[in-house]
Amino acid sequence: MNRRSLIKNLGVTLGAAFIAPETIAKISDDTFSYEIIPNPNHKPMAKAVTAITLGAGNRGNVYGGFAAAFPDHLDIIGVAEPVQFRNDKYAKTHKIADENRFKTWEDVFARPKFADAIIITTPDNLHYAPCMKALEMGYDILLEKPIAPTEKECRAILALARKKGRIVAVCHVLRYAPYFVKMRELLAGGAIGEVMSVQHLEPIEHTHMAHSYVRGNWHNSKQTTPIILAKSCHDLDIIKWVIDKPCEEIIAMGDVKWFKLANAPAGSTDRCTDGCKVERECPYSAIKEYVERGGRNSVLDIPADTKDKKAMAMERLKTTNYGRCVYRMDNDQPDHYITSIRFKDGITANFSMEAFASYHGRRTRIFGSMGDMVGDMTELVITDFRTGKVTKLKPIAEDVEGYKNSGHGGGDWFLAKDFAQAVANQDPKMLTSTIDESIESHLMGFMAEKSRKTKKLTAVVV
């Protein structure tokens, strides 16, 4: 079958949905691979956008990774990071001059503006103040989600960004992932008729939950942000974005059911390294996770040239939260959370965030008047009620210019590329997640948490 016939037949299967011929390849009779058309608004860049990164942890290194791979797009010329090991590593990667290395974000702004943009990847409770200061000084901003810990602070950032005419790109990276981009295109094109309802699941994966939201930086909502924002504002945002309707009402339930002292096994101790009698059989053993499997141990800041990394990891577990018993932490983040939402025109959605899964990767089911759509971030399966035809679409597992999955289904680096273009051309329309576009899903999160605590239905007012 030639490409023209292939697209014609596929177009019939998917109704009026838009499929660009240059992006489709046939795998089998009912399965097709696809890639996303490059942003047509992109223009040749005369020079790279310069940026200063505030926070050289995991997310700072994700966007730093794009800059290292594409220095003609994004050039990181400064860093603020209080952990010396991370500061040194980041500075070495990006060849940052000593005078542009800082301990704190305040130190950066003690100097006159010396870059085009600020990348804010500090802890959640340190988003608001540096973002406001950066806006006042005329920087454009790449802002890691959540925007800020409170509704008032989110609205204040939005107001100042509008007043100053600056670009604030929120890192709702799923909007840039080919999987979700295609999902939105298909729904807008009528592939399943009129959308009626959505079911969306985020399985955090049990050891990820223990790592980030029981032991890790986000274990206490009062010190950071509620898990519905810290983890799942991505999900609220992507549900809203693919439906493309405003949210009207939301109700939520959830609690800490398992990770609490009442469930601590007999023989367990304050730390996994304290001679815990059940450590070998515990699925949340820090020794098994960080020492034996070596999973997620970048948080332990072990130098690359360390001869015995396992021994050093064991020592880190004796002094940090990552070695503490998951049943004896001061955590308050719900380990299961369900949210029901009503959007304009009577569209409903149910979202479930689950800690207790052996897998990760978002799952979505969308129900329409003429068909349904099921996906797991690796494949979209569309069934047409009128013909009974089943079509499968698989996103090509490459993202920016041939690089393999940078993260979030390729969305991390697609966002970084669009941000560099937006700043270089001073055109926020090159982004799909400016603060104007992203704030509604944050308000949904705040209202969901209010609902969970008050046990009442809440309205969302943008």
Structure notes:
The structure is a single chain. This protein is of the alpha/beta class and 462 residues long. The chain has a domain at 261-323. 32% of the residues lie in helices and 19% in strands. The chain has 14 helices and 17 strands.
- Please, what is the average pLDDT? 92
Please count the beta strands (DSSP E, at least 2 residues each): 17
Distance between the termini: 49 Å
Strand content: 15-25%
Query: Which residues sit in consecutive blocks of at least 5 with pLDDT less than 50?
Result: none
- Name the shape in a single word: globular
Helix tally? 14
Rg, please? 23 Å
How would you write the strand order of the largest sheet?
1-2-16-15-14-13-9-12-11-10-17
GO molecular function, one term: nucleotide binding
InterPro entries: Gfo/Idh/MocA-like_OxRdtase_C, Gfo/Idh/MocA-like_OxRdtase_N, Gfo/Idh/MocA_Oxidoreductases, NAD(P)-bd_dom_sf
Protein name: Gfo/Idh/MocA family oxidoreductase
Domain Gfo/Idh/MocA-like oxidoreductase N-terminal: 54-171
